Amino acid sequence: MTDEAANLTLARTELLAAKPPAEPGGLVGWARRNLFNSWFNALLTILSLYVIWLLAWPLVKFVIIDAVWDGAGRDDCLADKVGRPVGACWPFIQAKFKQLVYGFYPPDQYWRVNLVFFLGAALLVPLLIPRIPHKPLNAVLFFGVFPVVAFFLLVGGVFGLEHVETRAWGGLLVTLVVAVTGIVASLPLGILLALGRRSEMPIVRMLCIIFIEFWRGVPLITVLFFATYMLPLFLPNNWTIDALLRALVGVALFSAAYMAEVVRGGLQAIPRGQYEGAMAVGLGYWKTMGLIVLPQALKLVIPGIVNNFIGLFKDTTLVMIVSIFDFLGQLRATFSDPNWATPVTLFTGFAFAGIVYWVFCFGMSRYSLFLERRLQTTHRR
Amino acid sequence: MAFYNDPRLRGIFYQIVLIAVVVWLGYEFVINARDNLRAAKIASGFGFLDNTAGFGINQTLVPYAEGDSYGRVFVVGLLNTLLVAVIGIVLATILGFVVGIARLSSNWLLARLAGAYVELIRNLPLLFQILFWYLAVLGALPGPRQSISIFDEVFINNRGLFIPHPIFGQGWEIVLAALVIGVAASIVLRVWAGRRQMATGQPFPVLWTSVGIVAGLTLVAMIATGFPITFEKPVLRGFNFAGGLRVIPEFVALLLALVTYTAAFIAEIVRAGILAVSHGQTEAAYSLGLKPGHTLRLVVVPQALRVIVPPLTSQYLNLTKNSSLAVAIGYPDLVAVFAGTTLNQTGQAIEIIAITMAVYLVISLITSLLMNIYNARVRLVER
User: Domain check: are A127 and A209 in the same one?
Assistant: First the structure.
């Protein structure tokens, strides 16, 4: 061996410079690299930790650790009576749960609401999972058949079902009814408006622009005021429209205008060649749009459409201002119950409603992200 | 080709039908409205604006008394809307930029914290947040006697926020003039420094000189006129505070909710805008020897602004429109006092709602006009 080594023509005469000391691995190394790599970052980290300690810890303490989990009335949620600091008063939510979900729907008819909830979920879930087949049929069932079935189930008055006035509806039921109606009505209306805005007929285009810009320029509240106070004046005297229906009309028109702008974005992204190709094979306007352009355009803007739905879902809360008791409206109504008046009642109610709203909206936004990523695979450059 | 297959003729036919439908609907609406108003014995026209309102408003920027007219109510409401919108826009922009930049921070914890803020706030309805601040947070504040005080100058309790009230004594105009002159001088200085740097490459410390000029001039004017601007401190007297400026809790709650809510959206816009500037720009700036601060200010931000400004304006519009949710907690904005109380008292729904909608439409149109001008100015000039 030693002889061979001596004969080598290529031999290292200098020693390698010493390697830098290995970075500490594990949690400490990670923290040093990401949290304390400069004095400024260290300061930011400490400040962030302070903010978390200031906000997150009291929240956890309130919602879980100090919370009262069962009880029968306000006495169980008063710190003086229980003899310890009191967090969220969950029995309050338990007691008001039915009011928050069904409003004043007759309790013996709850099954109808539950059936609607179940049907909606059973049709919506397969629609959302891309792997499940029969999407067109599913979409027709959800957007076409389900609203009709739900309408008759909820309103009643036919097939031996007891008639339930919409005034008795409330809570999460109304929130979902407004949201789903808005979604189901605004999508086709929005597509029509978007097509109209890009139409070559000047009067159609102008009317669509005026319609869209008008509704987008005013706040939803004024639209609801319009639907509640002004719309009845415009209709013949003998027509009485239900208060909920009036609000639904307002919400649908309002969200259709926003939907139209989203769809227009998609339409503009479709290259001219697609239109020209469709024309070249002899398709008419509706066939060009329905078979060639819209399927591509809508696919492009699905994330935007879902974002619109999130906005619409959040906006449903505004109906409480025109005295329709949606989820938030019912929540506010429960606060005035003297049997549950404690210092923690308000915070408990808001915590519960916040979780409900957040889960719905966050779920939708995650789904939109998921779709965006899924659709990107086919459009990746 | 048969005439009914001619696309041009068809187009004309469709449009005539459409116009006929619109005109017919409009005619029906007018006739129905006339009959309904007559049946309900509601007056029409804008004469009601001169009638006496007869109700009080708890925050007025211009003098207002119960005996004033509905027209005055409109002005008071409009000013209150604009007040909350302007202050909200300024604060939301600051908070939104801070959060948006924090989300891009290399500090893992800070980035996550900012992300959590955005995800939490964006996914809760605004009305929910307004009610939360108003009923739960501000409602839980102590009474005037147990007020939370900040340096004995500012007091927070369930009656509102009490801050020192500035009183303008004799000669305050001179101080104001000094301030204006200082600001004008700084602007001139900035232009001059910019030109000189372009010509010679020599930088000039504009910021510190400007601060010196403005502060110095104002201070000199203050001393010369004997400190004309004094502050009246709020003092606890009996069961409430006297003196000082009272900010009503409705305003505080609405502002808090609008600012935190809009800031979450602005943060996302800022983040997207900064990410839209390709990393090559930063690297090129570094390789030219620019400091990180200069790179951000001179290279990244100007390019990011092109992406940020259009959606930012639409957020400003959203904030202005969302301020109408004030009606839920009784902040006397345009919708609350005009489309709310005035409508209930007079019943003239058509006129009042039309005026209210027109106000918001005008604000929207002016904003989009300014937006178009800005867009035309910053548009990337492509060869």
Answer: no
Chain B residues 26-85 with a CB less than 8 Å from chain A: 28-29, 32-33, 35-37, 39
- Say which CATH number the domain at A324 has: 1.10.3720.10
B contacts of A35 (beta carbons < 8 Å)? 107-109
Could A51 and B113 be called an inter-chain contact, meaning their C-beta atoms sit closer than 8 Å? yes
Closest CA to B259 of B184, B185, B318: B318
Asked if B372 has any chain A CB less than 8 Å from its own CB, the reply is: no
How far apart are alpha carbons B209 and B211 in whole angstroms? 5
Q: pLDDT tens string for chain A (381 positions)?
A: 455 555 556 666 777 777 777 666 777 777 777 777 778 888 888 888 898 888 888 888 888 888 778 877 777 777 777 777 787 888 888 888 888 888 888 887 788 888 888 888 888 888 888 788 887 888 888 888 888 888 888 887 777 777 777 777 888 888 988 998 888 888 889 999 999 888 888 888 888 988 888 888 899 999 998 888 888 888 877 777 788 888 888 899 999 999 998 998 888 888 888 888 988 998 888 888 888 888 888 888 888 888 888 989 998 998 888 888 888 888 888 888 888 878 888 888 898 999 999 999 999 888 888 887 877 655 444
Look at residue A85 and tell me if it is in a domain. Answer: no
Size of interface A-B (CB pairs under 8 A): 155
User: CB-based contact (8 Å) between B227 and chain A?
Assistant: no
Q: Please state the pTM of the whole predicted model.
A: 0.84
Q: Quickly list DSSP for A170-198.
A: -HHHHHHHHHHHHHHHHHHHHHHHHHHHT
* Number of Cβ within a 10 Å radius of residue A3: 6
Check which CATH number belongs to the domain holding B345 and give it: 1.10.3720.10
Q: What one-character-per-residue DSSP string does A33-86 give?
A: HHTSSSHHHHHHHHHHHHHHHHHHHHHHIIIIIS-B---SSGGGG-HHHHTS--
Distance from CA of A212 to the nearest CA of B (A): 12
- Judgement on whether residues A274 and A228 belong to the same structural domain of the protein: yes
For A139, residues 6+ apart whose C-beta sits below 8 A from its C-beta are: A127
For residues A228 and A240, the answer to whether their CB atoms sit within 8 Å is no
Tell me the residues of chain A between 102 and 161 that have a Cβ less than 8 Å away from chain B: none
DSSP assigned state of A163: P
**B202 within domain boundaries:** no
- Identify the domain containing residue B18 by its residue range: 3-41
Angle A175-A176-A180 from CA coordinates, rounded to 5°: 125
Residues, chain B, total?
Answer: 383
Q: Is A355 within 8 Å of chain B by CB?
A: no
Q: Tell me whether B206 touches chain A (CB under 8 Å).
A: no
Which chain B positions have a beta carbon within 8 Å of A218's beta carbon?
321, 357, 360-361, 364
**Interface predicted TM-score (ipTM):** 0.84
Chain-chain contact of A314 with B22 (C-beta, under 8 angstroms): no
CA distance B38 to B344: 18
- Residues 235-264, chain A, touching B (beta carbon < 8 A): 235-237
Q: Does A36 touch chain B (CB under 8 A)?
A: no
Cβ-nearest to A35 among B109, B124, B328:
B109
Same domain, A208 and A234: yes
